[in-house]
Specification:
Blueprint lengths: L1 H9 L8 H4 L24 H29 L13 H6 L3 H31 L6 H9 L6 H11 L8 H13 L9 E2 L5 E3 L5 E6 L8 E4 L23 E7 L23 E6 L2 E7 L5 E4 L7 E4 L19 H26 L3 H9 L4 H12 L1 H16 L3 H6 L11 H9 L6 H30 L1
Parallel strand pairs: 4-5
Antiparallel strand pairs: 1-4, 2-3, 3-9, 5-8, 6-7, 6-9
Helix pairs in contact: 3-15, 5-9, 5-12, 6-9, 9-12, 10-11, 12-15, 14-15
């Protein structure tokens, strides 16, 4: 037994040592075909074979990514013709030109607003549809816009934002809601009779130059309304009877067919303007108001004596035409809304996938401890989904920095400068009429510098999650 133990202990090829087995036997051929002097990769594949398979991808990467980046940086240092070296002058132009600064400001708005709203909506959709039967169908509907190209989405929303309510869906809804609560004026386009006491004032109203007095009829003649545009049942205008201590008068259409009427006089055949609001204004404040009757007459109380009579603009405003969605003030928010419509489904799908991996025991424990649904959502669900939300936000930020199609298609020519972004400005400077590829290349370099840190952060975040 002792001899056997000593033999096992001293023999390097014994069961406990394995030293001899670790040394390759030169008599046994290597199944990989690689000799001791040949390099192999981690998977056992020869390096030159791996390089051969990677070569086409590396060539395409160099031709489509590396070369354009290098050439863009090089081109940004030359003038518009590309013949004279100007150094960093093009970058100075980028940060001093008013149009380009507008694009920078709009890009900042896009980066802050669009990813935040899209991610928030995606989170709400993912959480709310988790417990309903028709959640899958709803998610499908929300995700469907992702199947539409930016070009098609731009055309769709250009029609949605049309100013004419008969064509634009957005204004059709707005006008329908407005008309439900507010009635249109019966006398759009009416104006004072030339030579009368009424004068145009701020906001489209008409105000008498003289002050009102009791016992005297304060007539308010108007023109500019076609006879066939008068409300049905419009009758003959009647002179208002003077009343002591009150202000009376008549509002009428001071025009008789054939033009035979006398100015500022109520002639037979001249129609009354009923439903016209008359205000008594003193020191900029309305002290009394009245509405003309079927015969055009009105009566104001004694406190209107000494005030100026005013016909507010609401009497003559035209039909409400809706909101100017693509005007200078709303064009950028309107385009951002169309982007959110497309990408909220993308955010919802990623967040729903992350939500599926959240331990349900933590939520149930929070409910058992007395937390309501809002507290569970805010203090349990959102913190657990924080890594997914950050990935979605960063991905959308990278996408937003490159936004071009929607702005170019949706924004009309007269407000395109108000909705301008860096990617669109790059195109306009280089190929859209600016003919200055030096400044365009400088904008491209700035876009690259803005995107690269976000991409690096996103890559590191994904690696940490994988670990």
């Amino acid at each position: 037994m002792a001899d056997a133990s000593l033999a096992g202990a001293g023999d390097p090829a014994g069961a406990g040592g394995g030293i001899r087995d670790a040394v390759p036997d030169p008599a046994v051929p290597d199944p990989t075909g690689a000799g001791p002097g040949r390099r192999r990769g981690v998977t056992g594949t020869r390096v030159w074979i791996a390089a051969l398979f990677l070569l086409p991808a590396l060539v395409l990467l160099g031709a489509l990514v590396v070369y354009p980046i290098v050439f863009t940086v090089y081109r940004s240092l030359f003038d518009a013709d590309g013949n004279s070296f100007v150094g960093l002058k093009n970058f100075g132009t980028v940060f001093t030109d008013h149009g380009i600064l507008t694009a920078v400001r709009n890009n900042a708005i896009w980066v802050v607003v669009a990813p935040t709203v899209a991610t928030a909506l995606g989170l709400v959709f993912a959480v709310l549809t988790e417990r309903v039967r028709w959640g899958t169908a709803f998610k499908l509907l929300v995700f469907m816009p992702m199947a539409i190209s930016m070009l098609a989405a731009g055309i769709i929303f250009r029609l949605v934002y049309e100013q004419d309510p008969a064509r634009g869906v957005a204004n059709a809804v707005v006008v329908a809601v407005h008309d439900t609560f507010t009635s249109d004026s019966a006398y759009p386009g009416a104006r004072p009779r030339p030579g009368s006491d009424l004068e145009p004032t701020a906001g489209g109203s008409f105000t008498a130059t003289g002050t009102a007095s009791s016992g005297t009829s304060m007539n308010l003649p108007l023109v500019g309304v076609a006879q066939d545009k008068l409300p049905s049942g419009a009758g003959q205008a009647e002179p208002a009877a003077p009343r002591p201590g009150e202000v009376t008068g008549t509002v009428w259409l001071d025009f008789r067919p054939g033009g035979t009427g006398r100015p500022n006089v109520i002639d037979p055949g001249e129609k009354a303007l009923s439903g016209v609001k008359v205000q008594a204004v003193r020191d900029g404040k309305v002290v009394a108001s009245a509405t003309s009757g079927k015969d055009g007459t009105y009566t104001l109380p004694a406190k209107a004596v000494g005030a100026h009579l005013r016909l507010p603009a609401s009497n003559f405003s035209g039909k409400y035409g809706g909101v100017n969605w693509l005007g200078p003030d709303l064009v950028t928010p309107s385009i951002i809304a169309s982007y959110v419509w497309m990408w909220a489904g993308f955010a919802m799908v990623l967040i729903a996938a992350g939500l599926a991996g959240v331990p349900r025991e933590l939520m149930e424990q929070a409910r058992v401890d007395g937390a309501n649904e809002w507290q569970v959502f805010r203090r349990v669900t959102v913190p657990l989904l924080a890594p997914v939300l950050v990935v979605v936000m960063v991905t959308l930020m990278i996408n937003v920095l490159k936004i071009f199609d929607l702005v170019y298609i949706i924004a009309p020519g007269n407000t395109q400068s108000n909705a301008n972004v860096l990617a669109l400005q790059l195109y306009l400077e280089s190929f859209g009429g600016g003919d200055d590829q030096g400044v365009g290349s400088a904008i491209g370099v700035i876009l690259l510098l803005l995107v690269v840190p976000v991409m690096i952060f996103n890559i590191r975040l994904r690696r940490e999650r994988q670990r």
